[in-house]
């Protein structure tokens, strides 16, 4: 009779197991590399989304009603934007606040937007490196406000990814 011996079956099973483990490791490594490469893209997208939204609203802000005032810095900014009130038919100044909640130079926090009593998260993983503020006003004559947003996030292996953006917005109203 022709057939396989127990030794031949065990050797074939061992070879197959080694190949399967190698393929499994390659799949896991590829998956973790894909997630790690996605972190910088997520950070940049979050920061750019936040800056675009804040810039759009700050351009419509009333400069004299914006906090921080001239030559001040803060991790929050409150301003008022003119909005049409359908109920009364008048133009109201609606207050809007952007604030970094839980932000520090070590622990990331969230950038939130509050308007009409509703608070929503605009960007996660926001930090304030060296205690630097997010919002500052240095030029009251030209109604400029400076926004500095820093985001950071670590991957599963402890590598830290960062993204930093700055916008200088001229308030028009």
Summarize the structure.
This protein has 173 residues and is of the alpha+beta class. It has one helix spanning 6-59, and strands at 72-74, 76-84, 91-101, 109-115, 118-127, 135-139, 144-154, 160-170.
Question: How would you describe what is shown here?
Answer:
The protein has 173 residues and is α+β, with helices and mostly antiparallel strands. Helix content is 31%, strand content 39%. Strands 1, 2, 3, 4, 5, 6, 7 and 8 form an eight-stranded antiparallel beta sheet that branches. The protein is elongated, with a radius of gyration of 26 Å. The mean pLDDT is 82.
What descriptors fit this protein?
173 residues; alpha+beta; elongated; eight-stranded antiparallel beta sheet
How much of the sequence lies in strands comes to: 35-45%
User: What order do the SSEs take from the amino end to the carboxyl end, as H and E?
Assistant: HEEEEEEEE
Shape, principal axes of CA atoms: elongated
Mean pLDDT across the residues is 82
| N-C termini distance | 96 Å
State the domain count.
Answer: 1
SSE-based structural type:
alpha+beta
List segments where confidence is low: pLDDT < 50 over at least 5 consecutive residues. Answer: none
Radius of gyration: 26 Å
What's the main sheet like? 8 strands, antiparallel
Specify the number of helices: 1
Give the oligomeric state. Answer: single chain
Q: Please give the number of β-strands.
A: 8
User: Helicity range of the residues?
Assistant: 25-40%
């Amino acid at each position: 009779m022709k057939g396989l011996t127990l030794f031949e079956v065990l050797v074939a099973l061992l070879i197959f197991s080694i190949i399967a483990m190698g393929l499994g490791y390659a799949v896991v490594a590829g998956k973790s590399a894909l997630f790690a490469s996605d972190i910088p893209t997520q950070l940049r997208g979050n920061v750019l989304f936040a800056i675009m939204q804040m810039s759009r609203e700050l351009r419509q802000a009333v400069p004299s009603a914006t906090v921080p005032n001239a030559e001040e810095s803060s991790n929050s900014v409150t301003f008022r934007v003119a909005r049409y009130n359908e109920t009364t038919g008048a133009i109201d100044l609606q207050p809007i606040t952007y604030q970094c909640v839980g932000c520090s130079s070590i622990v990331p926090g969230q950038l939130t937007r509050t308007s009409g009593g509703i608070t929503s998260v605009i960007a996660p993983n926001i930090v304030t490196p060296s205690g630097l503020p997010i919002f500052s006003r240095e030029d009251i004559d030209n109604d400029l406000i400076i926004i500095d947003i820093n985001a950071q996030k670590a991957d599963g292996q402890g590598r830290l990814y960062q993204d930093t953006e700055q916008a200088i917005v001229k308030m028009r109203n």
